[in-house]
Amino acid sequence: EQQTSFEFYMHDNVFVSNPSGIPVAGANGSTTTFAFGTVIIIDDALTLGPSPTSTSLGRAQGTYLVTSLDASTILLTFTAVFSDRNGTLSFHGSDKITDPTREIAIVGGTGIYRFAQGFAVITTTSSVNFSAVLHFNVTFQH
User: Fold this and answer.
1) Cα angle vertex 40, ends 137, 139, to 5°?
2) Closest CA to 122 of 20, 9, 43
3) How far are the Cα atoms of 21, 31, 38, 73, 127 from residue 68, in angstroms, in the given order?
4) How many domains in the chain?
5) DSSP one-letter string for 88-107
């Protein structure tokens, strides 16, 4: 077993002309608001730096669900598919997006990250009109 740590950025864009996240369900059938009950499917870019033109590392593919009545917390579940790392990492946890720093679990992995267990510390580096850049600092055993 070894411990690995690294960082990446996730670029999430919803309600824009070229989205990487699509609302597929919501309260009262609405998919046009970010409110309690909204379900969003993501295929977000993962990069080495905070710029969307930074070196690509892969994609974050999964879902998030707005799970608090005040829309401040989401259930984030996705797999980071790394294009040059020969493996994936699976993330799952409650993310109170209004907090400056939060933590979710790494619950598994494949390839060189098989049996991964650990955590990710998340900070939001920018957020404008449902487009956010999230910084992930991950530490895990595998």
Assistant:
1) 15
2) 9
3) 19, 17, 10, 5, 19
4) 1
5) EEEEEEEEETTSSEEEEEEE
Sign of CA dihedral 59, 92, 124, 39: positive
Local structure of residue 69 (DSSP, 8 states): T
Q: What is the residue range of 87's domain?
A: 3-141
| 8 in Cβ contact with 48 (< 8 Å) | yes
How confident is the model over 11-44, as pLDDT tens digits?
999 988 899 999 999 988 888 788 999 999 999 9
DSSP-derived letter for residue 55 is P
Q: Contact at 8 Å (CB) between 1 and 140? A: no
pLDDT of the residue at 47 = 98
The CATH number of the domain where 39 resides is what?
2.40.480.10
